[in-house]
Amino acid sequence: MNPAATDHLPSFVAMPGQTDTLFFIMLAFLIAAVLMIGTLYLKLHALPEHLAHRTSKVQYEVVAILALIALFTHNAIFWIAALLLAMIDLPDLTAPLSSMARSLEKLSGRRRPPGPEGQSGVLSYDEQAAAAQPFPWQRKG
Length: 141
Known about the structure:
transmembrane, single chain, 58% helix, 6 helices, mainly alpha, transmembrane helix, membrane
């Protein structure tokens, strides 16, 4: 090719038979940009789960499921619901209920010391019936 014919071309245009350096620079930039944007997208999608990590197990699991549904369906309402649920502190309803159950067990007198295998101190219905005094007509001898 005549050098006079290519003098007016910019420096990034490759001559025939030479390596196109601009193509390889742009290819590396494109791959890096796709990886960075993908990482940012996945970190943003995991934001509700990260926020809900300090909450109760049930709340964390619901937030994780909502975020996963949002990831697969590309429906933003699920992600927004997961984010709002992660930001709200739900009250612990099981602690007062278990405290009431323990108090009722103590009041009823149906507790026994835990066994060597770490069994619970609550008597089952069959154990309560076996431990109860039989009626006078059921007594033997």
